[in-house]
Prior knowledge:
By secondary structure, the protein is mainly alpha-helical. 85% of the residues lie in helices and 0% in strands. Helix 3 (82-99) runs antiparallel to helix 4 and helix 4 (109-132) packs antiparallel against helix 6 (153-174). The longest helix has 65 residues, at 2-66.
Amino acid sequence: MDxxxxxxxxxxxxxxxxxxxxxxxxxxxxxxxEEKRISNITAAxxxxxxxxxxxxxxLALLLERVAPESLVLREQRQGMNSLKxxxxxLRVVRNEFDHNLAMQVYVTQKTWELIETARTELLKxxxxxxxxxxxxxxxxxxGRTIIENSTGDVKYHFKKALDALKxxxxxxYRK
Length: 175
């Protein structure tokens, strides 16, 4: 019986030593894994931050390029009638947005929806302005009508989308 009690004593002594060591090893490994996870997140943020900033810049530039005044003045062509200019403007707006479509993955859903709303309002403005101008009149007539009608809703939606982009860019720097 002394042999069993001696072995039990040894086992209990070993457990008293092994359990704290195992707990320390477990704590250390957990801490190492957490530090590695944080390091990976930090590295990913550093890598994606320039891409996000570039996306914000590109989308802001898109909004500036297709704003009614900018669009009309930049795309005005000599000798083009209103009907051709109308078609040309619609094509330019669609091409500009198609070219920047991938940037939506870098902004929130809400911001992307604001950008899409600005585009929709712009297309409505171009179409409604074209409906009031003789198709055979000069492109200058349609351009003037678009600029005159671009107050209110269209400017509001463009400003709201641009403000959302700026706010997201600011939040990126605060993280």
